[in-house]
């Protein structure tokens, strides 16, 4: 048998030319989004004021199994993709495990994460529709960076509402976004009604993704030629991110491998949904039955401790209602360093799959996550993002179980990004000042009490 | 003809198994290093107190054309190499140039640069010799990060003397080095005689590479089982870095391409020497005659305005004397943001080749460099390091010349690293506060006056 290389890069010919839409193979679809005014299901046209048309279509399209990737987007992908599938030989050795560990590394681009995969698609469709500006929010800053790159490429002005605590913690992220001509506003801000309302309730709030979303949506719907784009949670984003899983599966086939366990970190679900897509397809269609594991922070445990309920996607309650695992749109997570995993909800697609038993979920504490991150960095020479390190933690735990049972399982995890802009977090882990935050049951009950009341539904 | 892919990665089988030693093909060798005490040529054994034995041997070996890369180092290389050879399609389009532009991108590893190529080699030989600790200096922090990664991999304690201005400007670099267990001391420090002497002369100095070298060397020679390692300038480093050029040449051969112009930034010369090695071999042996261009900052113009003379490699005057292009070991460059290009001298190999007419050199001002960096980032989605952006500047200038003359030249440049830790510099460019620094002739004359007097030689 040929030795499996450390890194496998597909050739351009082997790269996917279509995205895969998980919904086409789901036995039961996610419940429809509801209009918060009348609780009626949202129609595609209802989304046109918020999203550009093609993206609104992708959001609602539960039928089309494979969507052609426009050639312009394929060309952009070729600038930084394929991302490598890496065999973690050194990690395996250090763990003394019989498991074979693979990871798909999405961090080798300037946005530092997988977010560019959807950013370029959303900017492309906006340009095609002739839109003149876009708004978005960003937490850790990876999405904002990715979208700024994409908008700069297409010459579309972009306003980024950045969660205030990240804005302050990560000045260098700001600078990268500005390098790509993005305008950044710390959120909550006084530039929107939503922001002003939140500031009035709590002038010292450090912000949240939900709150930044409210501001970005408000700005989009009140500005001519402007639309809103989002880097996670949405069906369209999972569609674009399926390129991660499709590339991974092709690469594993070339190595004659198939994962027993697929692991991804889960904030809004974009990376996890993309990575698992073709493997979940196998599971849904009975071709294979890999375990699929979502890993979330114990400080923001939407899957493991949230409710499966209709909720707003934002804190300011301006978006449609989605049925998903949620901690309540008023839930403000503690200052965990994984800024990308601070969202109160979870992709409706993933929520439904989890609810129906196709996926597992675990919650991990951040000191354990950083322990895994540092260990991984020393073995594999890649400094991982705090978000990605949640997946590393779970992968290491599974590999250690294999050592104990002697099973040579094949583990695939998503390494979504690099931690270069998270060095404050690393420093706080290294100097021992990092804390773990776990919401109490009372905290959660209080947030659940705010879930919208929908006659006849919840 | 097959379309040339955006990114070409060699397979593991295609990766070089030997480094190439330029000296074996030079018509005239660089002048020997001299002992500063008696001005006699240094012998291999004289270097044993400073360098580990195998590296001292490599330093002095002018004969062996190809040096086997130990299998352990090849295995480590496979964790982050091969680096891609990228066709800059978008940059070409934006410049409307008939030139074909390629770049070899060395930034896709956690050290953020090509420095890891030599760091892992030096740590390996130190481990093999049973050394118990290492010291080094770092300017921008890329070398320190790379060596910390390598030392952590082999479990060798490392002390890094970091140029004080970088230590203060780049706290995140520190944190990365600490993540890999490196101890960091801002230089000049009170931990060495050299540091104390420099502080006495100027208590507010922001330091220099030359000064940090003095401290690291002193610490190494006064500590049992400890040796010093250096990330540039030395012959051994150029040997290890030849992997950049060897991979590039193989990749270009697969594309049926050969560069008319090879461009690299030049600080101490490690990247430039590595990138050009096999192309310079062709030039030395009459097989081809590519133009080879070194690009240096106008603030530290060792090749374009320095003297070809014997000088100390450090500010504290503890190292052997090397004949090289130098600004004088007392020259402290102004606070240019390309921390990796602040060295007073230049690799003796490159100095000799330049002196003998095999290479050209240009000096560029930093605002022009950052202008090129931002332009490049927007076209190619990679945020380049300030050092690397010197090469980008020159490549763009050459491509623009091609537009004017209509010549479809093939340009290859080295993109040594990423700029994630240089966002202060980007911010200062973007907000218009960045200045250009050009030493006056008087500044240089003053520094030249300090060149060592060597009876019968200079």
Q: Layout of helices and strands, plus pairs?
A:
Two copies of one chain form a homodimer.
Chain A: E1 7-8, E2 18-20, H1 53-60, E3 66-68, H2 71-80, E4 85-87, H3 89-95, E5 100-105, H4 116-128, E6 133-138, H5 142-154, E7 158-163, H6 164-169, H7 171-179, E8 183-187, H8 193-201, H9 209-221, E9 226-228, H10 235-254, E10 261-265, H11 270-284, E11 291-297, H12 302-305, E12 307-312, E13 321-326, H13 348-355, E14 360-364, H14 366-380, H15 386-405, E15 410-415, H16 423-430, H17 441-448
Helix pairs in contact in A: 1-10, 2-4, 4-5, 5-7, 8-9, 10-11, 14-15
A few lines on this structure:
The structure is a homodimer of 458-residue chains. The first copy, chain A, has helices at 53-60, 71-80, 89-95, 116-128, 142-154, 164-169, 171-179, 193-201, 209-221, 235-254, 270-284, 302-305, 348-355, 366-380, 386-405, 423-430, 441-448; strands at 7-8, 18-20, 66-68, 85-87, 100-105, 133-138, 158-163, 183-187, 226-228, 261-265, 291-297, 307-312, 321-326, 360-364, 410-415.
């Amino acid at each position: 048998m040929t030795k499996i290389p450390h890194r496998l890069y597909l050739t351009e010919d082997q790269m996917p030319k279509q995205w895969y839409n998980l919904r086409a193979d789901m036995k039961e679809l996610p419940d429809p989004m509801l209009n918060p005014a009348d609780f009626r299901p949202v129609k595609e046209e209802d989304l046109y004021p918020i999203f550009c048309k093609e993206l609104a279509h992708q959001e609602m399209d539960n039928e089309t199994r494979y969507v052609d990737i426009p050639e312009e987007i394929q060309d952009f992908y070729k600038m930084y993709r394929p991302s490598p599938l890496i065999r973690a030989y050194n990690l395996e050795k250090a763990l003394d495990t019989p498991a074979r560990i693979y990871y798909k590394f999405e961090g080798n681009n300037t946005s530092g994460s997988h977010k560019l995969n959807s950013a370029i698609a959303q900017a492309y469709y906006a340009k095609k529709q002739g839109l003149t500006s876009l708004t978005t929010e960003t937490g850790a800053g990876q999405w904002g960076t990715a979208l700024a790159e994409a908008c700069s490429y297409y010459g579309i002005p972009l306003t980024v509402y950045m969660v205030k605590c990240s804005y302050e913690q990560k000045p260098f992220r700001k600078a990268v976004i500005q390098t790509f001509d993005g305008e950044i506003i710390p959120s909550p801000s006084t530039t929107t009604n939503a922001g002003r309302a939140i500031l009035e309730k709590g002038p010292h709030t450090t912000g949240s993704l939900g709150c930044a979303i409210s501001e970005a949506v408000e700005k989009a719907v009140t500005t001519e030629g402007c639309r809103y784009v989002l880097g996670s949670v949405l069906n369209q984003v999972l569609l674009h991110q399926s390129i991660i899983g499709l590339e991974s599966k092709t690469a594993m086939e070339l190595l004659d491998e198939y994962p027993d366990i697929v692991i991804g970190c889960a904030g809004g679900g974009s990376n996890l949904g993309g990575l698992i897509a073709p493997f979940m397809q196998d599971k849904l269609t009975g071709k294979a039955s890999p375990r699929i594991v979502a890993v979330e922070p114990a400080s923001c445990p939407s899957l493991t401790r949230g409710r499966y309920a209709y909720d707003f996607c934002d804190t300011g309650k301006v978006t449609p209602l989605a049925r998903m695992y949620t901690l309540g749109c008023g839930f403000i997570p503690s200052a965990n360093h994984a800024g990308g995993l601070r969202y109160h909800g979870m992709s409706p697609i993933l929520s439904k799959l989890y609810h129906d038993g196709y996926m597992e979920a675990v919650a991990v504490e951040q000191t354990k996550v950083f322990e895994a991150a540092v260990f991984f960095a020393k073995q594999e020479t890649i400094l991982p993002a705090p978000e990605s390190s949640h997946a590393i933690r779970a992968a290491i735990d599974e590999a250690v179980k294999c050592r104990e049972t002697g099973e040579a399982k094949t583990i695939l995890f998503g390494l979504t990004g690099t931690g270069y802009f998270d060095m404050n977090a690393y420093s706080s882990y290294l100097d021992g000042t990092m804390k773990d935050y776990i919401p109490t049951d009372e905290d959660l009950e209080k947030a659940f009490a705010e879930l919208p009341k929908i006659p006849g539904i919840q």
